[in-house]
Amino acid sequence: KTQIRLMNKKKKAWRFKEEEKSFALSLYYNSPKGYLFMRRYLCLPTIRSLRRWLHCLNFTCGLNDNIFEIMKNKFTSSTLSEKAVSIIFDEMSIKRFVTYNSQNDVFSGFEDFGAIMETDNNLLCDQALVLMVKGIKHPWKQVVGYFFSKGPISGLKLKTIIMTTIKKLKSIDLIPKVIICDQGTNNQKLRNLLQITINEPFLTFEDEKIYFMYDTPHLIKSVRNNLKKYDFIYKNEVYSWSDIIQFYNIDKNKTPRLAPKLKEQHIQLPPFSPMRVCLATQTFSHTVSSAMFTLIANNLMNSKALNTAKFVKMIDDLFDVFNSCSFDEPKIFRKPLTDNSKHWVSLNDSYEILTKLEIQNSKKKQPPCISGWLSNINSLKMLFNDLQNNFEFKYLLTRRLTQDCIESLFSVIRAKGGNNVAPDSSKFYSAIQMCVAQQLLVPPTLAYEIDSTFDDNLSAMNIAFIQLELHEENSIAYIAGWACSKLNHLECLDKLAFFFKKIDAQVQID
């Protein structure tokens, strides 16, 4: 009927009904190349029209039914393994500010939980909770809802939101297998309400187990923060931050250095730096542990530091197991988990140590980060067995079981306002609506493809903070000058010559 109705009209006069738009999107998701081919012979909307329709979605607070309907069309022909997904959620601080939305004739800036639960419209919001669904077997992600609240959302409300999300995903034939969040107090309350324990880190919904995991980048930061405050004891072994300080003081004056990435910032942790994952992973690294072993073997460090070096190595291996991303990784624990891989031995050894680990704090009990690691280890074992037996998984990329994707989304939202650290609710709405529309237009990739570049690698950002001496600056300038002299493009050489005439030389080269 559509083709008969439009065939005698000019393209600019084509108008499509809602069901025709839905059909076009479904066709595009199945094969973008096939869609472009069929547009030669059928009356179908352009890709630009599809994008414009998605941008016009009314993405109000709550779980968006339009998005779930589009996702249903996306995965109609997907296999069972491709429908296994994770639910990821996190909160972001926003500015308390009331604005008027002329398009919807409403004031924004107040608490809003959508249609899920009652809302107190008299409370100004300062937190935004975002829920994202992400594929486990192949790389795709989709924001499905957001909520505004005053302060962190309570564990009871979180439970209502999560259970509603699970029901909606099941209604469109997607299968949630894991819930991922950080260790905020409200999230720990949610964990208790769901009756999650270390030995049974899952909830059961319609005879299907859904596993609960904490974000591992947050866990490794918490371990670093606790080790900086208190000594750890396992049997007769003492793990101390003072050993890492001693190693840094010895190594920092060496040329060349054994651990060149370790800087004063890693040791002192000035304000805001404890939030950076790379500072924790560069401290608990193979380079630092190997360097400590070397100094101890050469009697340049106290032999008691050997225990701390072992602990650093254990945390590094444990984090790598939970951060596997590609078969091409040189580190064995960064390779995907398989049935017979060496990851399981490392997990069992780490579990045994962490179970008996004592923290020398005033409460004399393990902090949440240690119990979080124990829960994650058990959850990962059970999840892999479940995926292998019931969903035909041959391997698992654990980097997809982190919050990196949602942290990256928050970075994009802040950047939309010109590096606005705390946007107000209206700016947040505009930014997230654009991000959601872009995600909806991405067709699902093939299940057997491994696209590690798609995953947001915030936890893998090993950024070196280099503090150069004068002779080092001169060396770099000399090398850069030699590289520029090898340029063959005359236009480039002319522009470089003109550039150097305009500036005063800041680095003198002998």
Main attributes?
alpha+beta; 3-stranded antiparallel β-sheet; 45% helix; 510 residues; Transposable element P transposase; disordered C terminus; 7-stranded mixed β-sheet
Strand content: 5-15%
Helix tally?
Answer: 19
What is the overall pLDDT average? Answer: 84
Shape: globular
State the domain count: 3
Q: What is the terminal-to-terminal distance? A: 80 Å
Number of strands: 12
Content-based structural category: alpha+beta
Q: What is the radius of gyration?
A: 27 Å
> What's the helical proportion of residues?
40-55%
Largest sheet: 7 strands, mixed
Record the strand order, biggest sheet.
Answer: 1-6-5-2-7-9-8
Low-confidence stretches: 446-466, 502-510
Notes on the structure:
With 510 residues, the protein is of the alpha+beta class. The chain has 3 domains: 1-56, no CATH class; 62-215 and 402-467, no CATH class; 224-368, no CATH class. 45% of the residues lie in helices and 12% in strands. The chain is built from 19 helices and 12 strands. The protein has helices at 2-6, 18-30, 32-38, 47-55, 65-74, 155-171, 185-193, 216-229, 241-251, 264-268, 277-283, 286-297, 305-321, 343-355, 368-390, 404-416, 425-440, 470-485, 490-502; strands at residues 62-63, 84-93, 99-101, 106-108, 127-135, 141-149, 175-181, 202-205, 208-214, 232-234, 237-239, 358-359. Strands 1-6-5-2-7-9-8 form a 7-stranded mixed beta sheet, sandwiched between helices. Strand 3 (99-101) and strand 4 (106-108) form a beta hairpin. Helix 6 packs across helix 7 (185-193) and helix 16 packs across helix 17 (425-440). It is globular. Mean pLDDT is 84; it is low at 446-466 and 502-510. InterPro entries: THAP9-like_HTH (IPR021896), TNP-like_GBD (IPR048366), TNP-like_RNaseH_N (IPR048365). This is Transposable element P transposase. Residues 60-194 form the Transposable element P transposase-like RNase H domain. Residues 6-53 form the THAP9-like helix-turn-helix domain. Residues 218-328 form the Transposable element P transposase-like GTP-binding insertion domain.
